[in-house]
Design a protein that fits this description.
The protein has helices spanning about 5-10, 25-35, 50-60, 75-85, 100-105, 130-140, 150-155, 160, 175-180, 190-205, 220-230, 240-255; strands spanning about 15-20, 40, 65-70, 90, 145-150, 170, 210-215, 235-240. The chain is α/β, with parallel strands linked by helices. It has an 8-stranded parallel barrel, surrounded by 7 helices. The longest helix has 16 residues, at about 190-205. The mean pLDDT is about 95.
């Protein structure tokens, strides 16, 4: 397996990752070879499912890139499938209440304390687990649920959300939040920024690591955003996405080389 996302989240130094929405292992290679520490495989907005995500996770393992998978919803079956595939962390979108976060965390735990189905023949255990008790202890220590809070209702309930025991990290969703608040994708709007500030401050005060998306393809703006959030206790950043970074590189080349 690749490096551990929980260990990365525990560091105080700036850690950079990105989103994987293009189902190409070669892009995972490039993510690792160019210095990103982790990627989030996107099964919510990417046009693929767990089978493809498992293939991409193998590329992450080969490149020592930590990975998580963003699932379409808070479905314990999909959470189980992702963890069985050896993807140790799940990002669950649109979480709005502490109860929803509790359900997500329960889906990462085996019975009798959780909802995760048990199988001795899955990738997370090397395809044949001979000592189930040892496997459960190790597996439940290394897997985790990341709450993606991206609606106005989620912001209202953030104090209760970050107090849920077992939450690995909070991820803020500025773009979806701007849509939820009526700003139509303007994640820079003052009201959206204030809501994100509130979520970050609440999580940091509760001792919960924060993962912050940085969408801007403008490197100076991205650097300023990272410096801003670093000053508020955030160390882990999700930079653009594979599509944003590739589109920006294409535009730079065509802009520089295209004739009049």
């Amino acid at each position: 397996m690749s490096r551990d996302l929980k260990s990365l989240l525990a560091r105080d130094q700036t850690t950079l990752g990105t989103w994987t929405q293009i189902a190409a292992p070669e892009l995972i290679d490039l993510i690792g070879l160019n210095g990103f520490s982790f990627t989030i495989i996107d099964c919510q907005h990417g046009p693929f499912g767990i089978r493809t995500a498992e293939r991409l996770a193998r590329a992450a393992d080969a490149n020592d890139v930590a990975c998580a998978v963003r699932l379409p919803d808070n479905d314990p079956v999909q959470i189980m499938k992702a963890l069985d595939a050896g993807i140790r962390h799940v990002v669950i979108p649109n979480l709005e209440t502490a109860e929803a976060v509790e359900r997500a965390i329960a889906a990462t735990r085996f019975g009798p304390h959780g909802l995760r189905g048990a199988c001795p023949c899955c990738r997370s255990g090397g395809h044949f687990i001979r000592n189930w008790s040892d496997y459960v202890a190790a597996e439940e220590a290394r897997v985790g649920a990341i709450a993606l809070v991206e609606t106005a209702k989620g912001v209202e309930n953030i104090e209760a959300i970050v107090r849920v025991q077992g939450l690995t990290a909070l991820m803020c969703g500025p773009f979806d939040l701007s849509v939820s608040m009526g700003f139509h994708g303007d994640w820079r709007a003052a009201e959206v920024s204030e809501a994100v500030e509130h979520m970050v401050g609440t999580a940091v005060a509760a001792g919960v690591p924060v993962m912050m998306p940085v969408f801007s393809p403008d490197k100076d703006e991205a650097k300023n955003l990272i410096e801003h959030w670093r000053g508020r206790g955030v160390a882990t950043f999700v930079i653009g996405s594979d599509k944003i970074l590739i589109a920006d590189a294409f535009a730079q080349w065509t802009g520089s080389l295209a004739g009049p």
